[in-house]
Amino acid sequence: MAKIYYDADIALDTLKNLTFGIIGYGNQGRAQALNLRDSGLPVRIGARKNGEAFLRAANDGFAPESIESVTANCDVLVLLLPDEHVPSVYSAQIEPHLNADKVFVFAHGFSVHHKTIRLPEYSDLLLVAPTGPGRQLRSLFQEGKGLPALVAVEQDVSGLAWQRCLAYAGAIGCTRAGVVKTTFAEETVTDLFCEQAVLCGGVPALIQASFNTLVQAGYQPELAYISCLKEVKLIADLLFEHGIDGMRKSISSTAQYGSAITGPELVDGRTKNNLEGALKRIESGAFAKQFLAEAAIGAPTIKALLQSENNSRMARIGRELSEKLMF
Ligand SMILES: NC(=O)c1ccc[n+]([C@@H]2O[C@H](COP(=O)([O-])OP(=O)(O)OC[C@H]3O[C@@H](n4cnc5c(N)ncnc54)[C@H](OP(=O)(O)O)[C@@H]3O)[C@@H](O)[C@H]2O)c1
Questions:
Q1: What letter would DSSP give residue 228?
Q2: Which ligand 1 atom sits nearest the alpha carbon of residue 81?
Q3: Which of 65, 218, 235, 319 lies in the 20 to 30 Å Cα band around 327?
């Protein structure tokens, strides 16, 4: 059984006398900064001047400053920038200003596991990866609850790294729900694999292909949209609450039989080989290299995907339906 920690396992005192520098005030940065501040910890925000993040942090009552200044003046540096921008920001604005022992905190293991930056040997390296978006991390915290997280330590120079890691997870609310011990490598690989294979790659591709199949066969696109896309939420909620076996108990026997014969036809030996191929691409570091190269030339693959999806018939039907049906 994985090791799981809760509020009872942490001591917030471990973070006493430390100042927290949040670098990047986006999805995670904003939520983590506000939760840390509400936990009574001193927080400073590093953002680029005139960027959206800078204005948002000022509106939230912080006094945002340059990334260089936050780096020089904070004990704990929480790097919450998009993974592809971490190398350039780190080498230009962080690395030259590392003037004392620093603790680094990450919300995803990508930069450390794939060594996209050269971190100091004298720093503790902590991972606190919330299992959901920043706004959920924030709203649950405000309700007195928490979002589970994955926690890991890559480098423990102070001897306090684990205590600090768990205390940080507590300060942003995650140990209220439970945090699971992992490693930077495991978190990075599993997170990338699941977003590609299931959440953001596999599921949308299957929805799109199923929608196209129905429409090409002459069925109304509105019906295809509702059944292939909108109803995913109902099943996702059942899966979330009860797992695959529990979901099966809540569906009709027609759906149970249909899924028993069609599911294995779709996810056959070829699909399994493709999944293994995707996993190997991630494990070998080839995916990370490919992704950073894509970012360096202006992300053409991502732009093309967003544009084609935005212009697709499916997206048009979705926009029209959202004005007519109250889901
Ligand atoms: N999204 C999630 O829910 C989630 C969940 C778990 C873990 N994570 C991890 O959390 C980390 C942060 O992800 P995120 O989704 O929070 O990022 P995000 O919302 O895209 O945040 C981007 C932030 O980075 C700043 N930024 C981007 N490029 C910059 C540059 N060149 N110089 C200075 N600032 C720059 C942006 O500032 P401007 O406004 O100035 O552009 C903004 O504040 C990643 O490692 C991600 O994998 C994310």
A1: I
A2: 24
A3: 218
How buried is 299 (Cβ within 10 angstroms: 0-12 exposed, 13-18 middle, 19+ buried)?
middle
Q: Which CATH topology does 4-182 take? A: Rossmann fold (3.40.50)
pLDDT surpassing 90 at residue 50: no
CB 246 within 8 A of CB 164: no
Average pLDDT over residues 309-314: 94
Q: Is 29 in the pocket of ligand 1 (CB under 6 A)?
A: yes
Q: Is the CB of 32 under 6 A from ligand 1?
A: no
- Hey, where are the domains in the chain? 4-182, 192-324
**First CA to last CA across the chain, in angstroms?**
39
* Predicted local distance difference test score (pLDDT) of residue 239: 98
Q: Is 275 left (phi over 0), alpha (psi -120 to 50) or beta?
A: alpha
pLDDT for residue 187: 98
Query: What angle, rounded to 10 degrees, do the helices at 300-310 and 286-296 form?
Result: 80
Q: Quick check: is 108 catalytic?
A: yes
pLDDT per position as a tens digit, 191-230: 999 999 999 999 999 999 999 999 999 999 999 999 999 9
Out of 85, 97, 108, 113, the active site residue is 108
